[in-house]
């Protein structure tokens, strides 16, 4: 069950929760803002739903709230940072900021972060670049949760991959993971007694199926686009590990700490106005998006939109009517905000998206 | 029907064909090599199959064999070139070479090419980077051939996207287009009287179908991963147009010249040994790939492989037994090599992959 809570109340309560976990004023401010904004924009799964889980990570020692981001290598337009398992969303935000600074100097900027922790909503940092007027590209590697094409045993991560395009009338943002459906989504459908709209994996007999429970049982979620998502997952993993000079997904699997602990994250920013005026480029973007959106919808009364376009409406609606928060999650955040850190049923709430990035 | 022709004979005949089209000795050498190598590695659709079509492009004026690649902008790690509609594969090769040079200086290098023409096999340039010891990322925008998710009318291109990882034991290379199946593939299945292994589009009534003929009729090929490939296609299009400061897919559609004429292509190279030794990074790659390949295959006797891994075996087999060339295509290349440029049935051979990038 979701309840609607006003933006300010969510932000303040969440900040108190983070303060009680030992975060500094500044850290708690930023963390509360990032988690709240994700839910505000409709991405509850990686917004407020993750606050109790973050508390669990801190208590388990998967996240070190005192760790400092450290520059460990640099060449030209590229910098390599060690996150020392610090707070994922804060380090990721700083890294995209730095990539933007590098892009201002070199046209393109790339920051490769090692010893990272879960960055929650993958799209946050691409959105961040777009809001600063830059094209943003980002991805991470993760532990394995998905069989490669042709295999029945998980061996690649559901690595998120994001591309954002700055647009005055609203950024266009791709924020995709490598599986067709997240494990969390399977759970939602199973609990509702529904079949998936399209096949989402294989059952234990190796048949393609839309039955969410059968896929949860087999552990064989489907790569998006079958062989394509499978290939993309391994390529992104290898690239991230080389660029940041640390763990591949295979090493994360061996260490088995869970939830992306120690992963590599890549942040690329590009100045879209290097060779054309902002006015011309923005006009180009608007024409392109308008042409796509003007095509005939599949169903009568439908509206074709590009990814990210509906976000502004979602924000407005949630600002006006309150942010949707799962009732149980909200109770847990309130408990954290009141100083009760001994929440025992986090796993039951979060287990559904434990293995997934989307 | 495919025939097998020895590598040297293919290379020499194809070079003669290019010379007869007016290419210089050096141009013909490089073009023959690139088309031959694509077929050698099993990508016939964008290798030798494209030689008669290239002849047609030259005769139609879609490709200007005398055009010179021109540097039109530069900042730090980024350079912008104007291809002036010159020979696609040659300009793309030069651009990736230049991206590699920029990466040697700046850690990362990016070349954005405008007024490009068809680069044939998308993976060629990522492979080129990997063979030079660099991570290569490349993509292009194209005219629209695929409906966006939620639409029944084509509005995005089947833009190829490639990532290559240099590995001494053989590069890992993702070379994917944005549709689940290329139009060419639909034709192959239809002619063989077969259904597609997985749904590949919608029929005219809007039902998801595996019937290739029904999809050809409706023009509604399926984005890979449904909404995901759709979103990725528009994001790559916008990024390419901004980075290269030229046409989006919508402008290509308006101009309606066909076959990517005037498109934007992006070439990114990254030095994987910036922060780690070559030995360590290569060991990391090998461990990662070995872990993936060692997982249990879906079917007894199957082998799990990462993308690009089978290419070495395909090369060896074709070097030993001859390159597979479609009989009709080979006859046309021979005609071109003999100086007969008035081939009239190119369209009938190539129509199946006309609208597709894969």
Mind explaining what this structure looks like?
The structure is a homodimer of 358-residue chains. In chain A, 43% of the residues lie in helices and 17% in strands. Chain A is α+β, with helices and mostly antiparallel strands. In chain A, the strands form four sheets. The first copy, chain A, has a seven-stranded mixed sheet, with helices on both faces. A two-stranded antiparallel sheet of chain A has the order 1-13. In chain A, strands 6-7 form a two-stranded antiparallel ribbon. In chain A, a hairpin with a 5-residue loop joins β10 and β11 (208-209). The longest helix of chain A is centred in the N-terminal third of the chain and has 19 residues, at 88-106. Chain A is globular. The two termini of chain A are 20 Å apart. Residues 348-358 of chain A have low confidence and may be disordered.
List keywords for this structure.
7-stranded mixed sheet; homodimer; 358 residues; globular; 17% strand; alpha+beta; two-stranded antiparallel ribbon
Task: Assign a percent range to the helix content of chain A.
Answer: 40-55%
Radius of gyration of chain A: 20 Å
Basic shape of chain A: globular
So what's the oligomer here? homodimer
* Helix segment tally of chain A: 13
Q: Largest inter-chain interface?
A: A-B, 85 and 85 residues
Number of strands of chain A: 13
* Major sheet strand order of chain A: 2-3-4-12-5-8-9
Query: SSE order of chain A in H/E notation?
Result: EHHHEEHEHEEEEEHEEHHHEHHEHH
Largest sheet of chain A: 7 strands, mixed
